[in-house]
């Protein structure tokens, strides 16, 4: 079912959601868009992450390729600590209002957590109080075509809901595909009644700017109804059963439950900027730890670097700046989370360079 297209107010903010499951490359894709942003436009990025230690915001701020993000007219705000796609939407609305007031952007990009349902967020953006402010444009959902043949991805409600919310599906990481992966993706989309949704294929997150421009077409009713209850459960349980432990001067640790069969655990730490790490020790640590997802920013003797590990592949990029060092990982097992905590605590301490 299509929404009727209406004319948006002249000064309304073009707004896009870029979503997709854990590890699909949303941050890389947004960085590519930022690097090709028209120089006369102000852009704002609203980032939500699964755990309470935000990593993506630090990467976006530190990778503009200019002296600083404000000079580049790029403004970033994080909503850490779980899914901002819940029914109340209050954390998202507060952060969104603050970001718009500060940045007064020409374009707003929203990056939800990889295990968040986009339905309620899109519904919130369509509320009457945003009508004169938000000009809702295409929702892009990134998907790794290699995942659709893996049952735990293909049957995951969030994986399906993110695709059903898309105006444009982006088959990401195509440089890693084999011949059968794209046909499998199209077959999977047909099974979800999404054969009419446009699909584009990209490598290295190279989104095209014109994909952002079409109006958002999906109505809330066209997105899976499973989303509401799942995200309510996620929000309700997000503060239960914390497993805190301390590294450096700050810590956060949280459990998040999607449903009885799908549980994710997140642990993360931040370190003050005077803690400098050995680059090669950090690389070695991250190469040898195993988790569903690892993200980090570290201040090292060789400079500031962002690290990203998904599907057992570690990538690294140099950043211009960061307020501190931070790391976060996600697992599907509490035992795995505890084991990684036991490994990382001494390893990170040993990786610090003595003053």
Structural summary, described in words:
The protein has 2 domains: 13-231, P-loop containing nucleotide triphosphate hydrolases (Rossmann fold), CATH 3.40.50.300; 237-351, Hypothetical Protein Yjia, Chain: A,domain 2, CATH 3.30.1220.10. The chain contains 10 helices and 14 strands. With 355 residues, it is an alpha/beta fold. The strands form 2 sheets. Strands 1, 2, 3, 4, 5, 6, 7 and 8 form an 8-stranded parallel β-sheet that branches. The chain has a 6-stranded antiparallel β-sheet with strand order 9-10-14-11-12-13, with helices on both faces. The relative contact order is 0.16. Helix 9 (279-288) runs antiparallel to helix 10.
Reconstruct the topology from this structure.
Elements: E1 13-20, H1 26-35, E2 43-48, H2 56-62, E3 74-79, H3 90-103, E4 107-111, H4 119-125, E5 134-136, E6 140-144, H5 151-154, H6 157-164, E7 168-172, H7 181-191, E8 199-201, H8 227-236, E9 250-257, E10 263-271, H9 279-288, E11 293-300, E12 303-310, E13 313-319, E14 325-331, H10 334-351
Can you give keywords for this protein?
globular, Rossmann fold, 10 helices, alpha/beta, 355 residues, eight-stranded parallel sheet, Hypothetical Protein Yjia, Chain: A,domain 2, 28% helix, single chain, 2 domains
């Amino acid at each position: 079912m299509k929404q009727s297209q209406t004319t948006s107010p002249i000064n309304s903010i073009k707004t896009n959601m870029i979503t997709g499951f854990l590890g699909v490359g949303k941050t890389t894709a947004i960085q590519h868009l930022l690097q090709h942003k028209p120089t006369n436009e102000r852009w704002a990025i609203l980032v939500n992450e699964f755990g309470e230690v935000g990593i993506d915001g630090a990467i976006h701020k530190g990778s503009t390729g200019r002296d600083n993000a404000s000079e580049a007219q790029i403004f970033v705000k994080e909503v850490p600590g779980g899914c901002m796609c819940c029914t109340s939407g209050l954390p998202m609305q507060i952060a969104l209002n603050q970001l718009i007031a500060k940045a007064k952007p020409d374009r707003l990009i929203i990056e939800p957590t990889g295990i968040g349902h986009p339905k309620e967020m899109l519904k919130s953006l369509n509320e009457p109080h945003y009508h004169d402010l938000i000009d809702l444009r295409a929702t892009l959902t990134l998907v790794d075509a290699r995942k659709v043949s893996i049952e735990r991805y293909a049957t995951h409600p969030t994986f399906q809901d993110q695709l059903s919310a898309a105006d444009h599906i982006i088959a990401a990481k195509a440089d890693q595909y084999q011949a059968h992966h794209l046909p499998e993706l199209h077959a999977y989309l047909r099974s979800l009644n999404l054969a009419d949704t446009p699909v584009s294929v990209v490598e290295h997150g190279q989104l095209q700017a014109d994909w952002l421009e079409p109006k958002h077409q999906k109505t809330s009713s066209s997105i899976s109804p499973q989303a509401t209850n799942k995200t309510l459960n996620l929000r309700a349980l997000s503060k239960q059963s914390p497993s805190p432990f301390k590294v450096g001067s700050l810590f956060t640790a949280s459990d998040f439950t999607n449903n009885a069969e799908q549980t994710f655990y997140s642990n993360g730490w931040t370190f003050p900027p005077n803690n400098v790490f050995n680059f090669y020790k950090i690389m070695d640590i991250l190469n040898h730890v195993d988790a569903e997802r690892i993200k980090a920013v570290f201040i090292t003797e060789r400079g500031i670097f962002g690290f990203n590990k998904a599907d057992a592949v570690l990538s690294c990029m140099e950043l211009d700046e960061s307020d501190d060092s931070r790391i976060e990982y996600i697992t599907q097992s509490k035992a795995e989370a505890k084991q990684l905590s036991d490994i990382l605590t001494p390893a990170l301490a040993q990786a610090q360079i003595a003053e």
